[in-house]
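Q: Convert this sequence to structure tokens.
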Amino acid sequence: MDGIIAAFVLLILGSTVGSAKVINQGYEAIVEQTGKYKRTLKPGLNFIVPFLDTIVWEETTREQLIDIEPQEAFTSDSVQVKVDAIIYWKVTDLYKAYYEVEDLENALKNLVLTAMRSQIGQMELQKTFSNRREISQGLTEEIKEVTKAWGVEITRVEIQEIKLAPNIVASIEKEKAAQIERNAAKLQAQGVADYMRQISDVLKDNPKGQDALKFFLAQKFVDANYKLGESPNSKIVFMNPKDMSEAVSELMVADELSDQIRDLGSEGTKAS
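A:
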């Protein structure tokens, strides 16, 4: 008789111990009974019915993250980029997270990828770099409503990096270099135009203007020949001394005006 009582007491103690389940803070657990949902266990000491109740899922309710590897996307101007993102999320309803969606983390990842490609596809390449924060905020807001039905709250989605393929980078650098050259040529042409306009203003009402201009051009010609003479590939050019002396005699009368033109020439050279 004593043995039967002892066995009965041990059975009760074993059942009590076996039915006790401690859930740590920051976690919850789903309990099913004979294959159906029964209840959600909260942090602390909980009791379940041995052999009938089964804990099918225990999950943290703290914030988690999913790091999405770089994925390909195309901008509205058909440029291929690779986008790296991180999802910050947490479970708010364990029942929905377990029963309403299959493979929760994979579903979240695919949802973010679809939304991310859609947003990138609506932007030009330049805007994707300057509006990275706006893209992150837009993704967060867009998928929040969907994930509510899954018992999940999306805290935020962060776009970590947007990269271009090496051939695209080289093409962009080449285009930038060409644009810089075009801008330099435009500035130089503008400087020459301003310089010629100033010369025109000086010569317009001066009776000796034409002579001074000839002198100025002759001087430029002499300077050019001097530089040509310094070149290792230079050649000797013979000029008629009589023509040269007559030209100099005629143009000496315009020396003062030619000084003004030379000054303008220096300024034009600096501007260009």
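The longest strand covers residues 152-164.
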